[in-house]
Design brief:
By secondary structure, the chain is mainly alpha-helical. The chain contains twelve helices and no strands. The radius of gyration is 19 Å and the shape is globular.
Length: about 300
């Protein structure tokens, strides 16, 4: 990985488009985190060799439920359609610009995913939302430690995949490399502080809560019920998790890898606290990295 990074970074820095220069270098913070992460990943892989049952997720806690594709489809439809009604309501009172529209849509999408997901989980899991789906801070300290270790281990993998994907897309379809909308808002110094603060709230709090309830809590639990395999459920969920972020094409491989880590930790603990925390920490690191590199 270390030998490939300079080549990828040099290729990225050859462009003058601001959107493409996000990866023209890696900050010292990210370099340190990635170096530490590779060490943590090596230890985890060695531990997996010694105790393969944990890597195979054998004996991971089950989550009895009655979820079907119809439940998931309904939640996804509500998830995607609700922002339109919210925008219509706000536009009838206020004149929204592009930044405000992005923020309103982001808040609505994530709150809808969270509330709709919890509502479906309440009657779909045999033991309800807390004990059934695992939406609980029980054993929060152990899960917090696991989350820090998990995000540290997966971070260098995600960064490497992001660089590789960006380099490949730059060679064939450079116009497909774009900056995430929330990073544009956060790194634009002319954006009012209130909107930047709301962008951080969405990325660091609401998105991890809403997406983990929807993808890990509901979708992964349904896949596990049908496929009778924790890893098959994790992989299928990760494919869909990456796919819904298709607007930022270069991020898809990295998000797939991140989702594998999120799904693995959900299966290992049976609780959503760890994947939510990993998601929060990952988004926080990426935001800090973007801010450190912004002019």
């Amino acid at each position: 990985m270390s030998n490939a990074l300079p080549t990828l970074l040099a290729a990225a820095s050859a462009t003058t488009r601001p959107e493409l220069r996000q990866i023209d270098d890696i900050t010292p913070m990210m370099t340190i985190l990635c170096g530490l992460g590779m060490c943590v990943m090596a230890v985890w892989l060695a531990h997996g060799v010694i105790k393969p049952s944990k890597f195979r997720l054998s004996g991971s806690p089950g989550r009895a439920n009655t979820l079907t594709p119809i439940h998931i489809l309904l939640v996804f439809l509500v998830w995607q359609l609700t922002p339109k009604f919210a925008l219509d309501a706000f536009n009838s009172v206020f004149q929204l610009g592009p930044t405000q529209t992005t923020i309103i849509v982001g808040i609505t999408i994530q709150l809808t995913a969270l509330l709709a997901g919890l509502a479906v989980a309440a009657y779909s899991f045999d033991n309800g939302v807390v004990r059934g789906m695992g939406f609980t801070p029980r054993r929060w300290f152990n899960d917090s430690i696991r989350s820090v270790v998990g995000v540290t281990a997966i971070l260098p993998v995600c960064i490497f995949l992001l660089l590789v994907a960006t380099w490949l897309i730059l060679r064939w379809e450079p116009d497909r490399v774009v900056t995430h909308q929330f990073l544009k808002i956060l790194t634009n110094r002319s954006t009012p502080q209130i909107w930047r603060a709301l962008a951080v709230l969405i990325a660091v709090v609401l998105a991890p809560l809403g997406e983990e309830v929807l993808f890990r809590g509901l979708l992964q639990s349904m896949f596990r019920r049908y496929l009778h395999s924790p890893w098959a459920a994790v992989i299928c969920t990760s494919i869909l998790f990456a796919a819904v972020h298709f607007t930022v094409l270069q991020s898809l491989p990295a998000l797939f890898a991140l989702s594998l880590a999120l799904g693995y930790n959900y299966e290992r603990t049976g609780r959503l606290y760890s994947p939510i925390m990993i998601h929060m920490l990952f988004n926080s690191v990426m935001i800090v990295e973007a801010l450190l590199k912004s002019p």
